[in-house]
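User: what does the whole thing look like in 3D?
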Amino acid sequence: MASIILDQSNPARAYPPRSLRVLYFREWLVKFLLACCGFLSLLVTGSIVYVLVNETLVFFAKPGVSFTDFMTSTEWTPSLGNEVHYGIGALVSGTVLVSVIAMAIALPIGLITAIYLSEYAPNRIRAVLKPLLEILAGIPTVVYGFFALTVITPSLKFLHPEFNVYNGMSAGIAVGILCLPIVTSLAEDALRAVPRALREGALGLGSTKLDVTLKVVLPAALSGIISAFLLAISRAVGETMIVALASGSQPHLTIDPREATQTMTGWMVQMGSGDTSQFDARYYSMYAVACVLFAMTFLLTLIGNWVRKQFREAYE
Amino acid sequence: MKSLENVLKEAFQESKSVSRRMLAAEAFHWVCRITALCSVLVLGVLLYTVLSKGLGHLSWSFLTSSPHPDPERAGIWPALMGTFWTCAACGVLTLPIGIGTAIFLEELRPKNRMMRWLHALVQLNIANLAGVPSVVYGIVGMAAFVSMFGLMERSDKEQQSKHSIFEVGSRYFDQFLTVNDAVLMVPVVFHSSADTVPQDGLAAIDLNGNRVIMKVIKKGQSIPASDAEKAVSVRWTETPGRVHKQTWYHFAVPFGRSVLAGSLTLMLVILPVVIISSQEAFRSVPPSLREAALGMGATSWQAVWNVTLPAAVPGIMTGSILAMSRAIGEAAPIMMISGVVFITRAPSNLMSVFTVLSLQIYDWAGRHDAGFHAISSAAIIVLLFLLLFFNSIAIVIRQKFSLP
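Assistant: Here's the predicted 3D structure for the full assembly of 720 residues, as structure tokens:
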């Protein structure tokens, strides 16, 4: 565009006039600033990794802490005077327990709701159900924590008196409710992206609606559905306020959902909010736990991206 | 060739299996309906619980009073103001950076290989950042903003006193008790200055803000008779207490457990959300608009500023407001920054200690007293109302300004 103005044959006009130079400079400056914004996100990742690794190294340098104990021990007993163990296994088992319960609720219900919304629901019902799910998705997690504590736990105790006041089941159910709209909306997007022609072809061959859904649409949308599942799992693993309120604070290796348990995030919140000394090994253990959590969610995101790329069916 | 008998047999079985398949299809349809009803039911139970428990406690005095050990007298004013301060600061910080990054990723298509590689890296990075749990951002924010990578560690060892490296908008005073139990304040330079020794002729300020000259009553001297003199006289044994007065623009480095540190941390949490939704807004602007601008000789920034950005604003606003409503409800990262603290005053500047509504809800919900559960659900109603308000703004914007 500038070459129209620049006349190379005339040496006096070989340089752009002043106003254009100002324009070029402004252009360069704006691009530079925008690139800085983009860079900032890299900086954020960099500082996350720096902080986590740095403070984790401080933790492992503390007396009484060892890496092998951290990885292999299944006891997390930092407060017991002479039997101090920092075994991440105990906290991971809490996280896994809560996440498994949550997924047992969110994945089937979420997927079936998504199928209903995309394949069966008449427009009238869709117009009501979609906004309701959006409301459910917008409710802050601390509200779900309150719900778990005041509604789910008493109901569980009513059904089965063996349940502790704080238990993994109640937290898991609440996390499941939290993940439900995520699964539904992402899976529905994936199902809707399947072209109509596929459905019509199957229907034309004499399939019932169930056959179309289960044997044609679902396999075609599988990559999107799996990445929705993975996203929901990573949300459940990183969920904090619900487990902090409802699952209690006794880290131990258990698969009994009736007992109090503690997840990785629960421990981090307990250390961050409490009055633990800032120079205690217990305090720094928070960073090591955060490191493990970060690695887990990062891995889930990577797998999700890979699945989406690898198994995507393109219909164009 | 199949015999006729066999064909008929197959057809008969076929019809049986057809009816079975039809039955299964119908059954599945009902399963779908019932499952979809589940989520509605859950939402209904949740809202009913919160409303039935909290509606009775919602009152004007609940909104305008401070937390209190007695649930009947407790209120949410500091938390409500804390939420406003943090979210406003967070929005001001996040929007330019988020939109800038989205423009960088969507509108400035680089030509050389190096920049293209950077582009792809930033894009991948944002997708990953969106998956990081908010509590991790909380502890990173604590290390990065509260203590600024250990700048504060030195002072933390000596008696928890906050020690700033850089500070504006704050004045420190030594407070003396006069003989008639009034208060005199002597200005000091730094927070860490040594205690002032009472002296005759020291310039001081009384409680009404008048400048006065201090008088010291030495050992054995008698107390002056007149009230005016009593008001400026200090016993020689008096020890001062350090107080500070902060202006609205008070600013200090490191940030400490302040509103600013909280909103920067929230920024980290919602930045990926804002970037991704703004990117989608830019992507949905028809390419013909952009191409027309470029074809008429606009530079790429002119095309963005005058054409694409205005067209993308509704989408950006919708996405950003939804991100802000996430920031309002977020509790875990704020808990890492501010801790669960008992705060009775609304923040007055960016350096104030603070609490937010969601954290107040957490604090009350975690107690064993049913009274606290009730006011917790009253606070939840306020929080949900705020969110509803924000979301309806987003819907209005989406309806009003959406491109035809």
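In plain terms: The beta strands of chain B are 166-177, 183-188, 203-206, 211-213, 215-217, 233-235, 241-253. Residues 154-161 of chain B have pLDDT under 50 and may be disordered.
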